Amino acid sequence: MVTSSYLPQAGRFLISEPFMQDENFQRTVVLLVEHGEQGSLGFVLNRRLQVRIGEVVEDLLGADLPVFLGGPVEPNTLHFVHTFGELPGARPVYEGLFWGGDFESLKQLARAGHLQEENILFFIGYSGWSPGQLDGELKRKSWIIAPENMDFVFEYDPPKLWRDLLQSLGEKYRILSNYPQDPRLN
Hints:
Layout: E1 13-16, E2 29-36, E3 39-44, E4 48-52, H1 53-56, E5 66-69, E6 73-82, E7 91-94, E8 97-99, H2 103-111, E9 120-129, H3 133-139, E10 143-146, H4 151-154, H5 158-168, H6 171-177
Parallel strand pairs: 5-9
Antiparallel strand pairs: 1-2, 1-10, 2-3, 3-9, 4-5, 6-8, 6-9, 7-8
């Protein structure tokens, strides 16, 4: 399996290797928002649900935005990444990208019509790793790490994200990006 030269850190992408059998992460791209001694946390960017945020949170009824399955951990929680640096309590992921923040302030932004697909994503659940767990998975070559790139957070077609992000890493990854999901059907 090919590995990338990038190390895990907030803002980078974890791309599941094409042979991953874990149904939670097959052909996924995870945006890491935290990585450190306490563990790692991120959100799957390419598993859009068939629900809009106004159907999940009544207070955001006017915001007609998609919701994504952020991962298998705590599927009863709601999370968001955004570009609103002025949102109280927002945690920086990297320059221009933030995670979470004060929900009452977010509702005010929604009422003012500021929530758009190009500046906020909502997630049900998250992807989490205990201390050392992600490092172990990286040693087993379960993930390929890609560098920060805001275009792949907000401006992409989710069904194409896994392939497109792999291809952005160069020629040796293009071959992997075209590997069939089930080689027996090839």
